[in-house]
Structure formats: structure tokens, C-alpha cells
Amino acid sequence: MANPKFVLGEKVAAPSAYTPDILYPIPRALARDTLGYSATTPMFGVDQWHLYELSWLNTARSPEVYVGRLTVPAHSECIVESKSLKLYLNSLNFTVFESTQSATQTICDDLCRILGTPVHLELFDVTPSDLAGGVLHGINLDQHKQLPIVEEPNPTTLQAATDALVSAAWHTHRLRSLCPITAQPDWASVQVVWEGPDLCPESLMQYLLGYYQHQEYHEQCVERIYLDLLGRFKPAFLSVQAFYTRRGGIDITPFRSNDPDVKPLVRLMRQ
To answer: 75, 117 in Cβ contact below 8 A?
Structure first.
């Protein structure tokens, strides 16, 4: 998997020519194998990347500028490392494409090659009304300000308040995790939607505060939250979606559910 043009954690100049081999794949199995995930685990969803600095040259060598929404299925063999994605997108800035269709097809083909599955790229105007901020539902866990951060997420922290079965939703804007390469913090809002045992809100917030110093990729954090909740309570319905704030002109919104027909919310204004 080593890439001679890109070493994780090292300073790399922005490419000035089309460089598809700078894309760096990370197998999903590296994290999933430690979480008890198997092919029979009910987990569906997507990773949605919002690309705010998407640009290439038209045939007049004038820049075309868009906001892109890249959708990667959760069943892809790999994820793409975010810095390598940024560098790859930067490499398009000096590349001439005959049409927007040609550009988007090239991007999708390059990502399909490293991720092991087709991806979808939508283009929006740089002031896109279609990407207006979504609204999180349910109980806001941020009211529990007396709960301290802890070293690591521990699923045994999660507790049911009663034996009753409920339909509920919870969210927080205080999810924080660390990049496993640079150890730099990433902030996100996260929403859990649920049909199952009456989950104690304080225990969920305490569990999520365990990610404060936890080093893992965004997609892996969301899958850990999802699989911990699924394994501990076996709810009839579960979805987990995290809205990470942008870094380097890119944000990511991983979404996982045990219902293949449920769709993710659009991005938040915070992103």
C-alpha cells in the first residue's frame, strides 16, 4: 500500500499536475476486525464527503469551480485518506477537461479504482441551496454539562433507563476525536436515532465523551459507535450519523443504519 508520492504525516506540496496515484486507500477491515463486525452484521450506509474547493480548467484554460458531494458506499473495500483526497483534488486545478461530465467521470473512476466500488459525485453551485443546513432531531445531550471526558469509549458505560421499548433520537455537538496520523482534533455533531430499550441519555453522552482523545478515522469512529450500540442493545432500528467539520476544504458525514432504505440527513451549517 506504500505510495512513493505520499507518506502519511509528512509535509507534501500541492501537486501541479494530474496525480491520481496520490490517492491513499485504507482497508475498512483494519478497524472492523477489532469490533466484532462480520458479513452478517446488519450495517448499511454511506460516507458523504463535501468538497468545497473542487476546481479544474475548461478548454479555454479558465477555472471551473464547484462544491461537490461525493458519496461512498459503506460496503466499499477501502476508505480514502482525507489528506490524499485533498492533494488529489488539488492536482485537478491545472488539468483541462473538455466537459464537467468528463471531469466528474475521471474523479469517480479514480476513486472507484482504489475503493473497490463505484462512487457518486454531485456538483453544486458555490452557493448551493441544495446543501443548506440540516436540523438534528430529538434530545440534545449537551445539557449534561456535568459529565467529564474519559480516556476511551467504553460500551459498558451505555445503560438502559427502563425496560420499556421507545422510539427516540439524541444528538450532541461535542463529539471530538483525534486523527490517527497527526493526533490533531476533529470536531463533529452526531445524531443517534433509535427504536429499542429506553436508553439513558446521560450514559450515551458519557460514552460519546470517551472519544475526546480517541485516535481513529471518522468512518471508524461512527462504526464503533454504531456497533457498540447494536451489540449491547440489539435495537429494532438504529442509525448513527456524524457531521464532521471541514478541514482543508473537505468535510465528511459518515452514516450507518440497520435499515438499508433509510437515507442520511444533509450537511449541517456547522460544517
So the answer is: yes
Closest CA to 202 of 152, 250, 147: 147
Mean pLDDT by 10 residues, the chain (271 residues): 50 83 95 90 97 96 96 97 95 97 98 97 85 88 94 95 94 96 94 97 97 96 98 97 94 97 91 87
Cα separation of 94 and 105, whole Å?
Answer: 17
Q: What is the β-pairing status of strands 160-178 and 139-140?
A: parallel
What positions carry a catalytic annotation? Answer: 179, 186
CA 94, 100, 102, 108 torsion-angle sign: positive
Determine the Cα–Cα distance for residues 249 and 82; give it in Å rounded to an integer.
Answer: 10
3-state helix, strand, coil in the chain (%, to 5): 25, 35, 40
